[in-house]
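Sample entry copied in:
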Amino acid sequence: MRNIGIIFCSLFPLVGLFARPNQPKNHVKQPNIVWIVCEDMSPHLGSYGEKVAKTPVLDQLAKEAVRYTQVYSTAGVCAPSRCALITGNYQTAIGGQHMRTLGFSANAKDDYPAGLKPYSAVIPAGVKCFSEYLRMAGYYCTNNAKQDYQFEAPVTAWDESSKRAHWRKRPSKSQPFFSVFNIETTHESQVWAREKQPLLVNPKDVLVPPYYPDDSVSRKTIARFLSNVMVMDQQVGEIIKQLKEDGLYEESIIFFYSDHGDGMPFVKRELSQRGLKVPLLIKSPHLPKGKVDDQLISFVDMGPTVLSLAGVKIPQKIHGQAFLGGQQAKAKRKYIYAARDRMDAEYDRVRAVSDGRFKYIRNYMPEKSYYQPIKYRLQNPLMTHMLALKAAGKLNETQLKWFRPTKSVEELFDTQNDPHEFTNLASDPAYKNKLAELRKKHLDWVKRYGDLGEMPELDMLKLWWKGEANPPKTDQTKVDIVAGKAQLSCPTPGASIGYRKNSKETWMVYTKPITINKGDSLYVMSHRIGYTPTETRLKN
C-alpha cells in the first residue's frame, strides 16, 4: 500500500464517522435544497425597501418566500462568517476567527503579519462540514464554487466543488440534492474590477450615508456597487430559470442570502448593523408566500436548519439551532453574536452581542483605531478619496468618527434610533440595565463556547501543530478485507474517510463496509480537518 500526502479543498459540519446519521422518526421525502449566496451585500433589495437598485428577480422570489428581517453574519467579513456557516459553529470557538488563514502568499509584504504563513484551521475533532452529513444521508452535494472556510475541507464534503458543479450532474434525477451557488458580482473587489462596465444606476439618485462625503466620487462608487447588485439579480434569475427548466422550482427549497454586509469602506469588516445584517429569503412549498418573519437568526443556524429540513439528525456539538423543519428549536433565538479579529495584516479583537435592537460591543484592544490601513481595501476609489480628504482636513466630524485613534472599552447602541451606531450609550445611566444584560450575555457566550481570539495566533498554531513547523499528518486508513468487504477505520480522532474504486470517480463518504472483488483497486482518503490528508491505494 502506498501512503501519499495530498491537500484537498472543500467545506461543511459533523457527526459519527462510520454510521449513517439517524433520521428523525417523522422523516418524509428528502427535499431538494438550493443556496444562492451573493457576497458583500446588505439588504439592497426592493422587498427590503431599496429604492434605487432594481431587483425584479429577487423581489418576485420574495413574494413567493418568507422574508426574514433580522439575520446576522458572525463577522463583517467573508471567511470567518463562512467558517461558521459551513460548520454551524462560532468561528472564535473553532479557530477560524482570523481573516484569512488560506489563500494568501506568505511572502506578500505588508499583506499579512510577519512570520505567519497560510494554514488550515485545526477545528475540533467533533466538527465537520455539514454537507458531509447530507451526503451520508443520500444527498448529492455541490458547491459552485467559492469555499473560503478557513480550512481545507475533506473530499467527503462535496460530490463536486468547482465552477462546473451543478445539481444536473447527479447520477440519478431521483437523488435529492443540496446545491450552493456563490455569486461574486457584488463582492468588494468588483467595485474596482467592474469599474469600466456601464452604470445601471444614476449617481445623482443614490443615497449617500453621512459617514461619506456627498460628492461625485462617493456617488459614483455607490452607483457602481448598486449596479453590481442589479447584475447579481439577473444572475439569480438564471439559476431560477434552470430550476424551472428542470421542473424543480416549485418543489425545491431555495435560500437566498448574502455572506455579510456591503463591501464598502466603514461597512465591510465592521460589527455594526451595516456590516452584519443581511437579507434572507426562503421559498419552500411548505412555507407561506410573502410572509415577513422578524425572529433573530445567526449564521450558525443555517447549517442545522438545512439538516432539519433534509430530515438528517443535527449533531449535538453544533452551536446553532434550526429555525425550520422537523428539528426546529422550541425557543426562538434571543441574541446574536459576532466577532472581529485579524484582518489581513491588522490585528484587533472586538466582540458583539445584540438582541436585535440594542448592540453591545466589547473592544479588547481599545488602544487601536477603528480604522485599519488594510492594503486590499485601498483599491476602492472611495477609500483613497476619503484618506486624501482626511489628510487635507476636509472631512466633517461625522466622517472622522471612523478615524478616531482609540476606542471605548464598552459600547452600547440603540440601532433602532441610531442606525449608524454613532451614539455610545454605555455611560448613560438610563441604559445601565441593558448594558449589564448584554455584557453578561457576552461573557456567558465566551464561557460556554470558548474564544481562541484570546490566544496569539502563532501560539495557537504551535498548540495545534504540537510545536512543529507544519501541521500533523492524518493517520493512514486501516483497511481490513473480511468476506469480500473492505472495512475502513482511521486512528486519528475526527478524521473523515472517503473512498473510490478508480481515480476518476467521485470520492464517496465511508459509512459501511465496501464490497470489493478480486482485482479491484480501492483508493482511500483519510482527513482530519487542519491536518494533512493521507491517501492509501489498495489492490485486492
